Structure formats: C-alpha cells, structure tokens
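Bench notes, bay 3.
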Amino acid sequence: MLASRTVVSCYCLLICLTCAPVSFAEQADETISNDSPAEIRRRQDPSVDRNITFPSAETVPKGYFAINSYELLGLGVSFGITDNFQLSLSAVLPFLGVAAFGPSLKWCFLRSDRIIMSVQGGAVLASASGGGGFNALGLGLYLDFVLDQGGTLVLSLSNIIYLQKYTGSCANCTWEYAGYATVPTASLTWKVRRNIKFLTEFLAFFPIAGFDAFDADYAGEKTVETFYYFNYGVRLFGKTVALDVTLLRELFKEKKELVMGIPYVVFSVRF
C-alpha cells in the first residue's frame, strides 16, 4: 500500500513538471553554452553517474557529494575525489533481517565531447540476522555515448565474483566459494524536456561457475537459470535534486506478479 501511494504521488509530480513551462532563460542557457554535450549532461543531471540499477561511465564532479536514497531502504553516498575519480559507499538498512554494505571506486580513464569510459570496482558484505550471508567483489567496465544534448547510450559489462558464503549461526558458521557471474547491460536515456528524461535499461544475469552450491541452499537444485530484465521509467531533475520513478520488469517469465513491473523509486541530491 505504501509503495502504491509513493508511485501515485511521484506520477502526480511528473504531470506537474511536464506541464510546467520552460523559461526562455533556461532554453538560452543550454543553447548558447560552449560546453560539450557530455559536460552539459554532467552539469544538469545530479544522477548522471548512475542509470536505473547500474552505474553509467560518468563520475561526480570534483569536490561534490551525491546522496541517493533507494526505496527508503538503501542509501548511497558518492564523492568526487577528482573530476575522474569517484568514491562511493552504499548500504541496505536492516530489513526483514537482512543488511548489506559496500564501498566502490570509479575511475574515468577516457573523456571526450561525446565518449566517456570508466572502470569501477567494489565489494559487498551482506548478512542475515538468523545467520547466513555472503561476501562479493565486483568489477565493471562502462562506456557512455552522448548522442547529443538529449540522448545517451550506455553500454556496460559487469563481473560479479561471490567469494564466500556462510550458513548457520555466527558461532559455528561455515565458509565456501560461492560462484561467478557476468552481467552485461545496455541503457538508453532520452531527455524529453530540459528537466525530464526517459530511462530504459536492459540487463542479463549470466551465471558462469560455482553457483550450483550457492543455488542449492535456496532452490533445492543444482542449476541456476539466466535472468533478463527490462527496466524503464522517468527521471525528474534540477540542478541539485533528481527523482527516478521506474519499473523493474523480468522478461521471459511465465508468471508475472506485476505486468508492468516492480516499482522502484530513487531520490538523489548533489551538493
């Protein structure tokens, strides 16, 4: 019920912002700017370093903080060490007995007027109140093509290595290697107005090795299927705040709990 009300409220806000007129000064500021399309995108969008669920190649500008709130349960803080290095810390608040924490570092090693390339590495530590959890390392390569001042194509390849998992209570838990997977993603964003973007994201989760043991704990079998997702929605943004109202939809699934997808709302502030 709470999630439904949140989505309805966000869509009402979307309608208001869509109908609001764009001032001549705002149009002129974008038209006469000497900055490249990539710099204009970076300056205008406080959430430019992320897509829907995965990162983009862009980084937070030097000296700036970006704070993201994911569905009121997750919190992420990013800081621009330089214009090309970004440090991030993410945490999932204890909910239904599960909590997670993860640091990451993104390095932009190629930046031009329209092409941005970055690599990001990080770790995740997750635990459950009843015992159990896992540790993981991740490494991703991200490529942004800024098509023009309105559109961006993002291609990425992320590799996730589940180093260890543990079961049982903390007093007598057991550890073992869990598995390895790769997650290719493709995203397309398009700015339909100066302060509104349409977001799309396609991703696939391919298990490579070791997931038979990991999967046996919760599925009772020795195989793990590949998962595909198509996520979509809108981003409302100003110079310092942004609101993503999106839907996460699993593809090729016979039974779908929600036809349109699972609501996913993210609020961001950059200062």
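Next record in the batch:
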Amino acid sequence: MINFLKIMPELTTTLLQQEIDYVLTYGDFGGAFESYNIVKDRLEESGLAKSSPSRYRQYRDYLMKLKFLSLEYFNDLDDYYELIKDYFPLALEMDGFDLWSKLEIYLVSVGNLEVRDVFKQKIREALDKSDSLLVNRQKYNNPEMPAKVGEWTKDFIINLGLDSFDKVKKMEYLSSGKFIRLLDKADKEKIKALLDIYEKLMLSSKTKEGYENSVVMNLDGKPVIFNRGTVEEVRGLDEIRKVADAISSDIPVSAPAVASSDVLPDILSDTPSIPAAPASNVPSATISHTAELETMLKNYPPDSLEYKAVSQEILRLKKVAARKNANQ
C-alpha cells in the first residue's frame, strides 16, 4: 500500500476517513500505525491546539481512531487505559471494528494469568471512569438516563451485579431495561457493544470461560480445541498437521511466554470430561505466542475483521523475529 499521508502536503478529514476505511476493509493495521505517527507529528507541528481548538479536536478524533486500529502496536498499559477511558465511543463509530479482538491479542501475548487479570481490571476501571458521552440524553428528554460510558457501566452493575452476569438477567436488561427500552436502534447497539466488552473483562483468565488461549487437547480419543469454555472438534488430519506445523516451525520472539499446561487443571477442574493433559498425538498445550495466534485464527471466518487482526499480528511477530535473527 502507498501511504498517501506521507506524500500528501495537507491533511484533510476526507483523506483521514479514506485511510480509516482502507484499514477496516483490508486489515492494514501496520499501515494504521504508520499513519498514526504521521498524523501525530503533523498535529504537533500545526499549532492547531491553540489557533483552532475545535478543528484540532476534529483531527485528534481521527488520530485516536487510527490508534484504536493499530492498538496491537502499543505495549504500554497506559496507552490502552487512556485511549479507552477518554475515547471509547470513537471505537464504536468505526463500522466493523472489534475492540475486543485487539484486547484479546494483547492478552494472549501475556503468559502470566495474574497479569492478564490486572490488565482486565485496569481496562474495566478505564470504562468505569470514562466521562466520554455515549448517549445524548436530550434526544430522549430524560434527565435520568445515563449519558457517559461510566454511567452506563454503573447501570450494568446496579442491574446485573458485581459478579459474572446471569444470562437471563442480561437478556431482560437488554430487552426491557428501564433506560435501554427507550433507546433507538443505533444507541442500543452501542450499549450492547459496551456490555459485551465489559462482561468479558469481568471474567478472570484463570476460569475456563475467561481463559483466552485456544488449546488443542484430547477428548475421548479425539483431538479438540478448547476455547473460552467451549470445545470444538478438530476435523481432519490436515487441520491437526496445520496446528502441529505452526507450533513446531514457530520463530522465537521476545514476547512473554504463554501460559503453560500447569494452569489448565485449575481452569478445567469443573469440567471432568475434558482431560487437562494433551494426548501424545496432538500438540502440547504449551505453545508459543505465534502458534497460539495461528490456533486462534481458526475461530474466525477468513473475511472477518478478527481474522485480519490476528493475521496481521502473526505477520508482525514474524517480521520482528526475522529482523532480530538477521542482526545476530
């Protein structure tokens, strides 16, 4: 891809929207990261923050959208925290963008499950403290209606509790909640998206429902993939070989190791039908980061944004490893 932001002498909102549309269509998240840095530098040099604050905020919003799109290229937890706390509604403005897939890529790269839970807690805290407007209450002529992101997460807790949300209560809340029933379709979709992310962040990575890694193991003599509390059969020897090849041929990188098989008995302890130890004819549950992403890739349709996001991360890791090996 030619990065038009490099060669265009002037930034325009039309150009920035075209860049965002391109990334969403083709999954060029590396290009989004490059564009983010270009726009960031241009904005800092422009002086718009002082000369034209409203215009600056307009460009800043496009900048933050580019940051959401390239989030896997940021390693500092503060980047995630501040972006989500201050600009969460912008993520919902991008049609087809799945913020959770970005968070999941980060979580899978972290081997320590305690660290994963700390990350989830911090992101949940960012949402709780967010003053970003999600719903315009004036549109509904209801001064009591939650408007900010943090006000909606508080409403979740009031109606659904502090623990994992009961499915029946959740359905009732989304269909006939005091405020949700008043919302139009677009605003309801925003609340559903926020609730979905918030609910996933509440699940500890130490539980079978909250464990992000896809693990190949044996169930009654058949190879299966365990993923978020569900089990899917691996169909065909070609798929088994593909997973095995991805593991055996993985290039070592500097990313943290994924969780080892010793955490699986605790996660699966209430699921006795699924043995924790993998069979000898399927790959070990201790798999490297790139191989883990290769396995995760199976869970998404090839034309989905999640598939593109995970594929992009795999490519990025292998490029990093290739550069590292070339310098040795």
